[in-house]
Amino acid sequence: MPAKASLCCEESQEGAPPTYSMYEALKESCYNNATYFQSDDTENGQRLYEGFMTLIDHIDSVWPLVDHVRKVAPSYDFDVSCPGNGYRSFVSVVDSCVLHSLKISRVVCTSRDALLFRKGHFVREIESCGQLLASLGTCMHHLHTLLSWAPPGQLFPLEPHSPEELFAQADAINQYCFYGRCLGFQFLPSIRGILKGISICMAGFSEAYYSHGNLISSMWTGGQYLIDPEMRARRIVNISHSASVEFCKAFWFLAESEIMKRVPSIMSSTVAVNKIITLAPEPLTVMKTDGTKTTILPSTVHIGLQSLNVRLISLNKRNGMTGEGRSNMSPAQGVIFHCHGGGFVAQSSKSHEMYLRDWATRLNVPIFSIDYSLAPQAPFPRALEEVFYAYCWMLNNFKEIGTTGERIVFAGDSAGANLIAGCTLKILNAGVRVPEGLFMAYAPLLVSFVPSPARLLCLMDPLLPFGFMMRCLKAYATPKSNDSKGPTSKDQIGMSSVTTPVDTNGFLKVSPSQEGISEGPSSFEEVSPSDLVELQAHKSGSERRKSSDTTISAASLQSEHTQTGNTPPEDKSQQLVSDFLDRYVLDSDTDSEGRRIPLVKPSPKADESHREAESENSSTLVGDVPQLHETADSNNKKQIKTRISEAATGIMGAMSSRFAYITGSNNIVRPSQEELADRSNLDVLIARSPSDEFIFSVPRDPYLSPYWADDALLHKFPPVRLLTVHLDPCLDDCVMFAKKLKKLGNVVGIDVLEGLPHGFLNFALMAKEANDGSKLCVERIRQLLDLNNAPGAGEDARL
Fold it and tell me: Which residues of 374-389 are buried (b: 16+ CB within 10 A; e: fewer)?
């Protein structure tokens, strides 16, 4: 088990932390083994001796550094009832490393006299532990620097500092040791296997991505990453440093594949309604809280006018719900307005459906999830404006989604949490109805690499590597000026912190043009008369067929694969996955506009009713769209078996044909110079400095980073519940944002979970602890839905 961050800074009655004995136990075990192997003249025997002695030296050097951070860490917590901050997290990581090393050392002690004792194996294990502890020692040096940059209780420095200034304080960090044999040592055992599998897939997928999509051959080569941890570590670190944001999108796109999309329907809770609704880009008239009306226009920034897809999930069909006919069940009193995560560049409501189905079942209220546009094609502020537009549409259409709208709760994870916080600022400035509560999971609320201890956790995070995080941030927060469309103007809001000129934004230098609110394309509050004419004239084919008094258009199933209803050119990620699925598992069809839709190849014996039952609903205001039929348990089981059999048959047959294709002759395609450079970077042995990723600017915009919002606006926030994990690079964002709200007198609570990674909600069906975390999310949302029975602001904020 990993060390618990919530307990790592507790002291015993004697005044020494209880983990001190653990460090002493490791030294004693290492001395025992070193003495044993000192007389061993073999190469592996001497390497074991040196490895144990080196480990002892690292323990002696790391302990004083850890001890100091351990003592000061509690002063940075949100409150005494909820211990958690980046300093605690790093102390627990070092403690987990000591526990991991102690376990291996004791295994050596008990098995070294055995006839089949594998010296070579344990040489690599002990040497990797030494490298791991040495790298953590370097991280502790950085933490000491961060402590000197900020006063007690402040996790973000008050003075501007550059990345070079931080990383120059100590030796370079060896990231390879975090992704090899010790990968996932700091997480719960149930999570380690998942993380290892994802890391192997990432390394193997990079082979496919850089070999023109030959998946089977790359899978064959990628098997090396399963048996060679060192090769896997080098590949992952170099991917993090060298791969583009398109690779990140490509890898995360695997969760959007047709096979993965069918997992929720097999493993998750059954819901009666799960449909895509397409919102036409039309002006909306919304009632303000002061009784006046305002017009909200759809976003035109970056990619022009586009329709917007939203997903409606509900346990039951309710009276008035669009496309569901008549129902005896009355509308729900509450509704969940949800935004998915994915680093602003990937995923959709479908990839988050595993836990959304469970939430809809447990809460028994509709969930309205937004499929906002993704960067880098649609960077900031496109997604935020779409989320605000969807919220305003919902205010006018409660009946269509099966709710009276008495209680609205915002919910979002990761990038989605950032968007709902920014949307709340939009709502407050627009003067429309404010939701009754906000639930945010592992939220990045300061979208820039301001130095904080938790941010350094991404140097060892298997799911959110340092390079991935910085590349996604750059893709979303720093759009190219020539990517924008439409008029340019400032989106004015009353935030005093924005108008103050600043020279830097933490690690990232802010250019003069980016001081204050970013001068990008206009928000939809400011559109020229010509844009109004275009809005009125802009009608899709399906919109022309429907009546003029509705803003919902029929959405076909393929809309799930594209954002905001548009069909961008198929990128490399889609080519790779689609090619694999089309060849092995999927058939294809075309929609009314000639676009290809992947379909699972039917069995000759599968009838039409089965295929209709497997498809999702979509909005049925226009045309005839397949409905979700209820079938008996026996039929459901038969459908599941049929689907699995079809998929397995297709994959096995296609693997045979693909193997024949690989072994045959193929045309040789000469790679470009850029591709050759990328491939060579993935195999280099020398790590780059992390500071290389900081060469870009981020605007100090509260819509982008809600932490920078003016206190007067933050004070108007509804009750907020944050949930994060001790090992999350965004932990300090959540803690500092909660502290800020608490200081302003807001109702705010925060939960920090042990041993889980950023994005754990996507693993709710794979690990018990992740599932327990999802259940806690449900409880916090339930409290926000009915705050009359929840503790008030004067009670324990943690609930």
Answer: bbbbbbbbbbbbbbbb
Question: 342 near 415, Cβ under 8 Å?
Answer: yes
Domain boundaries, the chain: 20-162+175-181, 569-662
3-class secondary structure, 329 = coil
Q: Over the stretch 682-732, which tens digit does the pLDDT of each residue have?
A: 655 555 555 555 556 788 899 999 999 999 999 999 999 999 999 999 999
What is the rounded distance in angstroms from the CA atom of residue 541 to the CA atom of residue 128? 61
Read off the pLDDT of residues 33-83 as tens digits, 9 standing for 90 and up.
999 999 999 999 999 999 999 999 999 999 999 999 999 999 999 999 999
Map tokens 């919102």 to a residue.
279
C-beta separation of 296 from 279 below 8 A: no
Q: Which residue has the tokens 């300093």?
A: 87
Q: Which of 598, 624, 631, 626 is nearest to 612 (CA)?
A: 626
Measure Cα distances from 596 to 542, 564, 585 in Å. 18, 17, 15
C-alpha–C-alpha distance, residues 486 and 631, integer Å: 50
pLDDT at 395: 97
Question: What end-to-end distance do the CA atoms of the chain give, in Å?
Answer: 27
CA–CA dist 736, 707 (Å, integer)? 8
Q: How far apart are CA 728 and CA 205, in angstroms?
A: 25
Three-state SS letters, 530-551: HHHHHHHHCCCHHHHHCCCCCC
DSSP 3-state assignment of 524?
coil
Residue 601 neighbours by CB distance under 10 Å: 17
Q: What is the DSSP letter of 667?
A: -
Distance, CA of 198 to CA of 195 (rounded, Å): 5
Residue 308 pairs in a beta bridge with 279
**Alpha carbon separation from 787 to 193, 358, 531, 794 (Å, rounded):** 39, 22, 42, 13
Q: How many residues can be counted in the chain?
A: 799
* Calpha distance 253→245 (Å, rounded): 12
Do residues 522 and 488 lie in contact, with contact meaning Cβ atoms separated by under 8 Å?
A: yes
Give the three-state DSSP class for 95: helix
3-state secondary structure of 286: strand
Q: Is 273 helix (H, G, I), strand (E, B) or coil?
A: strand
Alpha-carbon separation of residue 641 from 262, 614, 646 (angstroms): 13, 13, 8
DSSP string, 595-657: -EEEEEPPPTT--HHHHHHHSPEE--SSS---------HHHHHHHHHHHHHHHHHHHHHHHHH
Q: For residue 332, what pLDDT is reported? A: 94
Beta bridge partners of 337: 368, 410
Does residue 21 or residue 632 have the better pLDDT?
A: 21
Among 374, 305, 300, which Cα is nearest to 523's? 300
What integer is the mean pLDDT of 441-463?
Answer: 90
Distance CA 12, CA 589 (A): 67
| Strand pairing report for 720-725 and 437-441 | parallel
Q: Three-state DSSP class for 681?
A: helix
Residue type, 674: E
Predicted confidence (pLDDT) per residue in 123-149, tens digit: 999 999 999 999 999 999 999 999 999
What tokens appear for 225 in the block? 């990453």
Residue from 279, 294, 297, 287 nearest 530 by CA: 297
Of 444, 424, 417, 311, nearest to 368 (Cα)?
A: 311
> Would you say 70 and 8 are in contact if contact means Cβ atoms under 8 Å apart?
yes
Average the pLDDT over each of 88-97, 324-333, 678-687 and give the range with the smallest value.
Answer: 678-687
Contact yes or no for 418/706 (Cβ under 8 A): yes
Quick one: tokens of 770? 């992740």
3-state class (DSSP) for residue 698: coil
**DSSP class of 668:** -
Distance CA 97, CA 605 (A): 55
